[in-house]
UniProtKB/TrEMBL annotation:
One of its GO terms (molecular function) is hydrolase activity. It comes from Anopheles maculatus. Belongs to the AB hydrolase superfamily. It holds the Pfam family Abhydrolase_1. Keywords: Hydrolase. PANTHER family: MONOACYLGLYCEROL LIPASE (PTHR43798), SERINE HYDROLASE-LIKE PROTEIN DDB_G0286239 (PTHR43798:SF14). This is AB hydrolase-1 domain-containing protein. GO terms for cellular component: membrane.
Length: 265
């Protein structure tokens, strides 16, 4: 019998008050909020979670795909039911912002507000690109799933930090990468038979992009959102295959939500 999967996270502030639920981006972790939370009012508790397969949360058993949107909103629902929370406030970066959007659309009477950073809603992907890449995604998934531990890439500490720093292409600094990698890397266990650090996230997350949305689906979800929305976007910010999605989603939210505020920084 397989072991149950567990979710991990970090809680700032009072354990008595209902917290803001903070959700990180794809292949990041709860450390995303380490430098933000101390700057917020101390009377606002925040719970940042590691999404499934990320940070210190469990990896899924072999044979299971990650469907990052559905996995994410299901996890939020589990947490809400466990604690018995009502009228949620959600804070999300990138994928976390998309999950906040999806949850607010799925349970429109139960969300008071959500704050989304860098994104308006779920990523939209062209149907033809999805069809063309499906076979490759499945083969990569099976490759990562059967990769022997002896082949698992390991790095020295500085090498790991530099690797991640280069991947962000200047959008984060060295100190921020160190903060993020406190939960994003782990010492190679003895049975790896090699020294150094490996990425803590599940390698299979790299091919977790099946099950993307069409524009029509995203706008249908946007129509259901009633809560207050704060959208924070960097200038120039992230680049997407379909930049018109942001504009279209925000137009719907301004019509359906109780209050919408957009802030560019």
């Amino acid at each position: 019998m397989s072991e149950p999967t567990t979710s991990n996270g970090k809680w700032w502030g009072s354990r008595v008050k209902q917290p803001v639920l903070a959700l990180h981006g794809w292949q990041d972790n709860a450390g995303t909020f380490d430098r933000l939370c101390p700057l917020l009012p101390p009377d606002i508790p925040i719970l940042a979670i590691d999404l499934p397969g990320h940070g210190k949360s469990s990896h899924y058993p072999k044979g299971m795909h990650y469907f990052i949107f559905w996995d994410g909103i299901t996890l939020i629902r589990r947490i809400v039911k466990y604690f018995g929370w009502t009228k949620l406030t959600l804070l999300g970066h990138s994928l976390g912002g998309a999950l906040s959007f999806m949850y607010a659309a799925s349970f429109p009477e139960e969300v008071d507000r959500f704050i989304s950073i860098d994104i308006a809603g779920p990523t939209v992907r062209d149907h033809h690109k999805t069809a063309a890449s499906t076979g490759d995604c499945i083969d990569k998934f099976l490759h990562y799933e059967t990769l022997p531990e002896s082949k698992m890439p390991c790095y020295g500490y500085e090498e790991m930090i530099d690797l991640v720093l280069a991947a962000y292409e200047g959008s984060v600094d060295y100190d921020s990468v160190e903060v993020l990698m406190r939960r994003g890397m782990a010492l190679a266990p003895a049975h790896f038979n090699k020294e150094g650090y490996h990425f803590a996230r599940d390698l299979r997350l790299k091919v977790a992009l099946l099950g993307m949305f069409s524009m029509e689906q995203v706008l249908a979800y946007a129509e259901r959102i009633k809560c207050k929305v704060l959208n924070i976007r960097a200038d120039p910010g992230m680049k997407f295959d379909n930049p018109e999605v942001y504009k279209n989603v925000m137009e719907v939210l301004k019509r359906t939500s109780s209050k919408v505020r957009v802030k560019e920084i």
